[in-house]
Amino acid sequence: MPSYTTDEVALNERFSIKNGVFSIVGLTVVGNFASLFILKPLHGTSEEVAMLTSLPALMSIAATWIGASWLARSSEKRHFCVRSTAAARVFYLLLALTPLFVSPPLAAAVVVGLIAIMNLPQALSGLSWQSMIGDLIPSERRGEFFGRRNRAVTMVGLVATLVPGLVLQAFPVRSIPPYQVFFLLAFGFAVFEVYYLIRHVEHPEGPSASRARGLTPKMFVELLRRSEYRRFVAAALVFNLGWQMAWPLFSIYQIRDAGATGIWISAFNVAAQVSQILTYSRWGRLAERFGNTFMLAVACFGMALTPLLTVLSPNLPYLTFVNFISGLFFAGLALLQFNHLLEVCPEQERTAYIAHFNILIGLVGFVAPQLGVALLALVHMTLAMSISSALRMVATGMLLWTASRHRRDGRDTWDNSPGSAAP
Length: 423
What we know:
The protein is mainly alpha-helical. The chain has one domain: Growth Hormone, Chain: A. The chain is built from 14 helices and no strands. It has helices at 6-39, 46-73, 77-101, 106-136, 139-169, 177-198, 217-222, 227-244, 247-257, 262-290, 292-310, 316-343, 350-378, 381-409. Helix 1 (6-39) packs antiparallel against helix 6 (177-198), helix 2 (46-73) packs antiparallel against helix 9 and helix 5 packs antiparallel against helix 10 (262-290). The two termini are 26 Å apart.
């Protein structure tokens, strides 16, 4: 694997932070307001909101499997990442244009379909970026770097959440043009996102220099023989099942049960983002002190409380406070989970392991939202949210068990050498 000078690492960190800052604008606008756009102006249904989560996950699975093989054969991950990111961002423009050619409620289904298809190049972009950044940023720099990057990205994401919410509040709830304007602005910011991605410094490997392989069906099972990775994946799958099954439930509860408008959706997200900004660096320091696995378990425990706290009251200021509390723990989850994944992946097989992990999480992401909506049709919201909390709590216990094993062994990180994949 090519080595990078101190100046090159610093340059890549700076460009990566700028890339993240511009990317978060579009991701925030689409991620935070797509459900409201579909439910209100486009007259969509709860099932379409659930599909807004499930279909993109299904697309991501296919793209990640194919992309792992493409990326393994590519000597320049940066170029692969640039092309896939640019392709994904074109969909912001298509979302803005859709209401001009398709009328509600059919437009709601078209928007869901576009967001789903968008996740084909988006998954390739995410996979290649994760693999690339693992090469460009040394392991000893990742904690501090991701802390700074996440903090900067979240601060911009806060503005990208607050401004649309305030603007939407000034328009009728079913007005379409404001959403179109924000999708167009997201596309404009995406141009700079791609520009700073291009400016990363990468030393390409020759085809013969890389021992990386694409992800094959046989490898899909073989990778689970690595005990450290297998334990991490098991806990992540259980947590994500409990986490993602509640995503459509939160949207439905906040918009329909609590009557949240655009400004309140912004308030929820701003509250979560403020707490993330305040705590990103603290999670990194606590992980250095108490261990990455233990602090990841603490983050999952806090996230397990969120569904139960949410359904205690439909009061909008109270829900804003709950989102603030949730953000405290989400900061730890966002920072520590990816670091954890890089730790348990051998460097020579990093792309295959990341793809493997993303595919498994994608499968859960496809099933979980549908399970959440199906549960809501059978039971009341409180019980559905309680099941979500219970699954998250089980994952917390699994991580605590893993942390106790590491403590007994006197370690919290793993040997990344190729020979350490003992079952």
